[in-house]
Design brief:
The chain is of the alpha/beta class and 124 residues long. It has one domain. It has four helices and three strands; from the N terminus they run βαβααβα. A three-stranded parallel sheet has the order 2-1-3. The longest helix has 12 residues. The mean pLDDT is 87.
């Protein structure tokens, strides 16, 4: 089954059928708070701010260190820049969930850097 990450603008209705058929498994972490409720699988979070969390501290498992980004976080941040913090979070969550595809509508920051992103996260 192919793991597919959709950022807040990446979901398409056609994906529902592929997921129902067991061809793909969709992931999304709602960093933007306007995520798609049809995507039920939540990947590991990557450096969320307190307001981006979706549970109380008492309900959280582990420590704050468990929510830090992957070893790729600094490189993704360097590639996209600090002004694209949420894009970095989405990409790193996709990496942490072993997603083979990343769907987005962000042509400025993500699609324009697709080759470099793909090279950086190759083998994920």
């Amino acid at each position: 089954m192919l793991h597919v990450y959709c950022d807040s603008g990446g979901y398409r209705r056609e994906l529902r059928k592929l997921e129902a058929l067991g061809e793909i498994k969709l992931f999304q972490y709602r960093y933007d708070r306007d995520g798609n409720s049809k995507i039920r699988n939540r990947p590991p979070s990557s450096n969320p701010s307190w307001s981006q969390g979706d549970s109380t501290w008492a309900d959280s498992e582990g420590s704050w260190d468990d929510y830090l980004g992957s070893e790729k976080w600094p490189e993704i941040l360097l590639l996209l820049g600090a002004n694209c913090a949420k894009d970095v979070q989405h990409l790193d969550s996709a990496y942490l969930a072993n997603c083979a595809a990343f769907l987005t509508s962000d042509k400025d920051d993500l699609v324009s850097n697709a080759d470099a992103i793909s090279q950086l996260l190759a083998g994920c």
